[in-house]
Design goal:
single chain, alpha+beta, Translation Initiation Factor IF3, 4-stranded mixed beta sheet, 2 helices, globular
Length: 79
């Protein structure tokens, strides 16, 4: 399974979610997108966006001041 990394550090809401959304549109279903963010709001915002858009959170972790969220791209990503 392919993993793509996205650096969304030092961006405030709603920019991390927008960056994730834009990147997901370029990816094939099943691809993992690992977004590294510094805004703690992403812990709620990205999972909510995933639920609405048919994607799935497979991992969330905190490393220092970084919030790392891994999204599995769903079937409706390229619509």
């Amino acid at each position: 399974m392919k993993t793509v990394k996205l650096d969304a550090r030092n961006l405030l809401c709603p920019m991390p979610v927008i960056r994730v959304q834009n990147r997901v549109l370029e990816l094939d279903p099943g691809t993992l997108l690992e977004a590294t963010c510094t805004d703690p709001g992403v812990l709620n915002d990205i999972p909510a966006w995933c639920r609405i858009n048919g994607h799935r959170i497979v991992d969330t972790r905190v490393e220092g001041s970084d919030y790392i969220i891994t999204v599995k791209v769903g079937e409706c990503s390229n619509e």
